[in-house]
Amino acid sequence: xxxxxxxxxxxxxxxxxxxxxxxxxxxxxxxxxxxxxxxxxxxxxxxxxxxxxxxxxxxxxxxxxxxxxxxxxxxxxxxxxxxxxxxxxxxxxxxxxxxxxxxxxxxxxxxxxxxxxxxxxxxxxxxxxxxxxxxxxxxxxxxxxxxxxxxxxxxxxxxxxxxxxxxxxxxxxxxxxxxxxxxxxxxxxxxxxxxxxxxxxxxxxxxxxxxxxxxxxxxxxxxxxxxxxxxxxxxxxxxxxxxxxxxxxxxxxxxxxxx
Length: 259
Ligand code: LHQ
Hints:
Blueprint: E1 2-7, E2 10-15, H1 26-41, E3 47-52, H2 77-94, E4 99-103, E5 107-108, H3 110-117, E6 120-124, E7 128-130, H4 144-152, H5 154-163, E8 167-168, H6 169-175, E9 180-182, H7 187-199, H8 203-216, H9 221-236, H10 239-250
Parallel strand pairs: 2-3, 3-4, 4-6, 5-7, 6-9
Antiparallel strand pairs: 1-2, 7-8
Helix pairs in contact: 1-2, 4-5, 8-9
């Protein structure tokens, strides 16, 4: 259900249930969680690249898994979130390495919001982001209410979440929801290039940068200045910082080792 391979320090994670538009069943939840956990555990991983197999990125939860016509009573979807989505979302946000996403087609429901929780999102121009929850009587999850509101503000977040209208990739980029919309046939090349750039970068510094930007969403200015002080203290002690400055002074390209 999820392909996972390490290639030159990039962990490539491909959601792989194309017949179901890569919607999440329990197997896929487990395999996806294991992939992100691997990125935490292995020093050889210096960047994650996430994408979907086939024509879609991810259609969110597999709605066939819980057919109301064959269930005894209403489901406890809070339990589903607590068991499957929320721990994975926390792993994504706490990973001190960049996660680059290639949104190769439609991203709906939790599928859209998982992409938005990652760090640098590129999308093919034909891709769309759909807050599909409203269409089936649900509410935004997988961190969507947080990410949409912070990235877009309340007006656009409510517009998307209440209507469930698809947001095309180029508009998503214009609105600041994602980093870039690119031609469909350039998507994988561009995302690969970015992932390789990150994987050859100062991994600790990039990971701390991710954490710093995320902390700013909820910190006061004063608290964030303290956060910056602490973060820079750690970054300043890395071998990659010494290498970066030495390379600059030597007028050569740095050779970062991720330490
Ligand atoms: C699917 C799905 C899908 C199963 C397409 N499931 N089969 C959290 C906690 C617990 C429970 C509930 O949810 C959540 C979080 C959520 O993510 S809720 C939101 C769930 N997602 C949706 O509501 C999106 C449902 N899908 C769609 O609206 C459309 O399929 C989109 C707009 C994504 C794509 O439309 P099309 O390009 O026209 O493709 P299609 O609809 O023809 O789908 C192709 C196949 O994929 C089809 O199967 P079939 O056997 O007929 O070929 C669909 O049934 C299947 N599929 N999404 N979520």
